[in-house]
Amino acid sequence: MTSSVRRSAVSRLILAAPLATASLLLAMGAPARAESEGARQPPRIVSVSGTATRDVTPDMATIVIGVTTRAPKAAEALNGNSQAAAKVIAAVRQAGVESRDVQTNTVSISQNFRNRRDASGYTQEPDGFTATNSVSVRVRDLDKLGPLLTAAAGEGANNINSLTFDYSGRKKVADELQAEAVRNARATAQRLVEAAGSKLGQLQMISAGQIPMPRPYGAMKMMRAEAAPAAAPVEAGEMTITSSVQATWTIE
């Protein structure tokens, strides 16, 4: 009887030992899993944008001066247009524009058509040819812009495709504004995080927005100048240079 009781007690002890070991392993594994799951949590972040602007006075301009001619035949239209364009370019050069600042922009010739009504309705019939030649001109002295336009019109220029004012130091100003935009973004992020009772962490990402290019003005038509015309009035006004960034910081 005593021997049987001892064997039963030993059996219970042997069975209990593996159970205790398994419980210990489970208990040891629980914190490890919790720690692993915590490590996979994404960091807290704050994303903001920063902008900086500055107004400057333009000191240069780019214009596209064109000559358009019509003639019954293609060769006549092209020949007449080429002669007129050569005179316009010469006038531009005489106005003080260097050769490096004059570049051909468009040379084209196309057939014209007109509508004609007959018994069957409207039909199109040939109506001569149109030739166009335009040059892009960079004017580095705005005091010369008005007289240049008048001189070009006097030599046959009859349209301006665009007029764009620019600032020669725009790149330098844009670089300075970009650094200012970054500082503004950081100040905004820090203000938001501290208001929430936390601390700003490490910079995670930063990207710069595109620098806006000067905006061209609408197309203008030019009438051929008469004798001793007054210089065309030109007002440059001001232009705004803007820089912006997007940035993300962690929150500690």
Describe this structure in words.
- With 252 residues, the protein is of the alpha+beta class.
- The protein has a domain at 59-166 and 217-235: 2-Layer Sandwich (Alpha-Beta Plaits).
- Helix content is 38%, strand content 37%.
- The chain contains four helices and eight strands.
- It has a five-stranded antiparallel sheet with strand order 3-4-2-5-7. A three-stranded antiparallel sheet has the order 1-8-6.
- Helix 2 runs antiparallel to helix 3.
- The radius of gyration is 39 Å and the shape is elongated.
- The model is unreliable at 9-28 and 221-228 (pLDDT under 50).
User: How would you describe the shape?
Assistant: elongated
How much helical structure, as a percent, in the residues? 25-40%
As for the CATH topology of the domain at 59-166 and 217-235, it is Alpha-Beta Plaits
Largest sheet: 5 strands, antiparallel
CATH architecture identity of the domain at 59-166 and 217-235: 2-Layer Sandwich
Structural class: alpha+beta
CATH homology group of the domain at 59-166 and 217-235: Protein of unknown function (DUF541), domain 2
Q: What is the CATH top level name of the domain at 59-166 and 217-235?
A: Alpha Beta
Question: Reading side by side through the largest sheet, how are the strands ordered?
Answer: 3-4-2-5-7
Following the backbone from N to C, one meets helices and strands in this order, namely HEEHEEHEHEEE
With helices defined by DSSP (H or I, 4 residues minimum), what is the helix count?
Answer: 4
Q: How large is the radius of gyration?
A: 39 Å
Which percent band covers the strand fraction? 35-45%
